[in-house]
């Protein structure tokens, strides 16, 4: 939530298979200022606007953590622009779908050694500010990923770190089963496995794309 630079190593691992793009959401990370506080469909609308304005072929759309909710809305709204969908460390698991539970499980997950990650996150969190961070958590808690996936028809890949304390394996598998062409792949590491093991998702995503 509110961060994106940590994804660069994992995106670099994918770059040998074609062009990759990191889309910063309005008001967050390296993007321009947001005109207003947005909900999850509002963030999805910004990604849709980028897709509509960019001359790219149908994409494999990837979201990590809270952005899995954003990309699901995009895939549902623009099926002709999304060839396949990847949900890495999906949120928000019904088992933690409240402020206290989410914060508790996030703190448990943070015990996994992730050297250098906090150094990247802190400036982006400061840039977002407490008001926008509170809004981000609230709107993602109200948005139910499993409901949105009912309208997604493209192939789906769900990835979950084996030590993830925010997303349970049972829920991740259930999400994959919602798709007529869904698959689940376990990953090493915690919720932020894309930082601890940046190459881990390369082969599953390449197999999905092909």
Secondary structure layout:
Layout: H1 8-14, H2 40-53, E1 59-64, H3 67-77, E2 82-88, H4 99-109, H5 117-142, H6 145-149, E3 156-161, H7 169-177, E4 182-187, H8 193-196, H9 202-209
Helix pairs in contact: 2-3
Tally of helical runs: 9
Q: How would you name the oligomeric state of the polypeptide chains in this document?
A: single chain
The profile of the biggest β sheet is: 4 strands, parallel
How far do the termini sit from each other?
30 Å
Helix content: 40-55%
Shape: globular
Instruction: Specify Rg, calculated over alpha carbons.
Output: 16 Å
* Low-pLDDT segments: none
Structure class? alpha/beta
Q: Major sheet: order of its strands? A: 1-2-3-4
Strand content: 5-15%
H/E element sequence: HHEHEHHHEHEHH
Q: Average pLDDT, to the nearest integer?
A: 96
């Amino acid at each position: 939530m509110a961060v994106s630079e940590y994804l660069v190593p994992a995106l670099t691992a994918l770059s040998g298979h074609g062009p990759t793009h990191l889309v910063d959401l309005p008001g967050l990370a390296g993007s321009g200022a947001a005109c207003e506080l947005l909900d999850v469909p509002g963030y999805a609308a910004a990604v849709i606007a980028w897709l509509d304005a960019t001359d790219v072929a149908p994409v494999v759309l990837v979201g990590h953590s809270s952005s899995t909710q954003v990309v699901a809305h995009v895939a549902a709204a623009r099926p002709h622009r999304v060839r396949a969908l990847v949900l890495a460390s999906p949120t928000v698991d019904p088992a933690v779908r409240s402020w206290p539970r989410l914060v508790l499980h996030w703190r448990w997950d943070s015990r996994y050694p992730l050297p250098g990650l906090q150094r990247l996150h802190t400036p982006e969190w400061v840039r977002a500010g407490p008001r926008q961070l509170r809004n981000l958590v609230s709107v993602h808690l109200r948005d139910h990923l499993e409901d949105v996936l009912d309208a997604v028809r493209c192939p789906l890949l769900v990835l979950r770190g084996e030590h993830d304390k925010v997303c349970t394996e049972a829920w991740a598998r259930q999400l994959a089963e919602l798709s007529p062409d869904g698959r689940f792949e376990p990953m090493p590491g915690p919720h932020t496995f894309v930082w601890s093991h940046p190459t881990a998702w390369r082969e599953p995503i390449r197999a999905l794309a092909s």
